[in-house]
Design a protein that fits this description.
about 220 residues, alpha/beta, five-stranded parallel sheet, 8 helices, 5 strands, about 15% strand
Length: about 220
């Protein structure tokens, strides 16, 4: 299980409201204070840091490398509202990635796994990423959801069910693709991992919708 520490103004409320969106990532710390981070996180030894900043221009160049060194983290995922090209250019590497925030937890989960995959391909040792879960919804359940209509006229659940079903169908299709060589095999393995993670993220959203609407299958 990959250990994750999150620092940012919105992360505590996001994790409190929607913890399932992170899947099997183990949140060992979440908070808003850099001082608390410095005191508490190094002993927790997270493998990935998710750091959210309003303005990268106000972030000292040495701050992020220092956080990674003190915690032993393998990767830092930096989100921001206002970019600062010199900092991004100075720090971007296989171990540090950037994206525009604020970041939904489902997207954060996908980016963490993608970053770990990139590190593995770069030959850097990281803990084994969590194994893919079996689908949460059967084809019969997805079929019923696709025909679901509500009095409020919200079509989110049927639309998500269609997307989940489409990703499952794509995974089944790629499993039957002819693989001519090792390069083909690696590509299809990558596609399968990415489709599985996308499916899991959408399934999390679908579960939340069903719980919100008190819908039972």
């Amino acid at each position: 299980m990959v250990k994750l520490a999150l620092l940012g103004d919105s992360y505590p409320s996001q994790v409190r409201v929607n913890p399932r969106a992170l899947g099997e990532l183990e949140v060992v710390w979440v908070g808003q204070s850099r001082e608390s981070f410095s005191r508490e996180v190094p002993r927790l030894r997270p493998q990935v840091l998710a750091l959210d900043f309003m303005d990268l221009g106000q972030v000292p160049t040495e701050l992020i490398p220092g956080m990674m060194e003190s915690t032993g983290a393998r990767h830092a995922l930096i989100s921001y509202r206002l970019p600062h090209s010199p900092l991004i250019d100075a720090l971007r590497s296989p171990r540090v990635s950037f994206l525009r925030g604020p970041v939904p937890l489902s997207l954060l989960s996908l980016r963490v796994h993608r970053s770990l995959d990139d590190l593995e391909r770069a030959g850097r040792p990281v803990s084994q990423a969590p194994a893919a879960h079996a689908p949460r919804f059967s084809p019969e359940q997805l079929g019923r959801l696709m025909e679901l209509s509500t009095q409020e006229g919200c079509e989110c659940a049927p639309q998500l069910a269609r997307l989940v079903g489409g990703l499952r169908g794509f995974s089944e299709y790629t499993a039957g693709c002819a693989q001519r060589d090792e390069k083909d095999q690696r590509l299809h393995e990558l596609l399968d991992r990415q489709m599985t993670r996308a499916r899991q993220a959408l399934e999390e959203g679908l579960v939340a919708l069903l719980e919100h609407g008190n819908i039972r299958l």
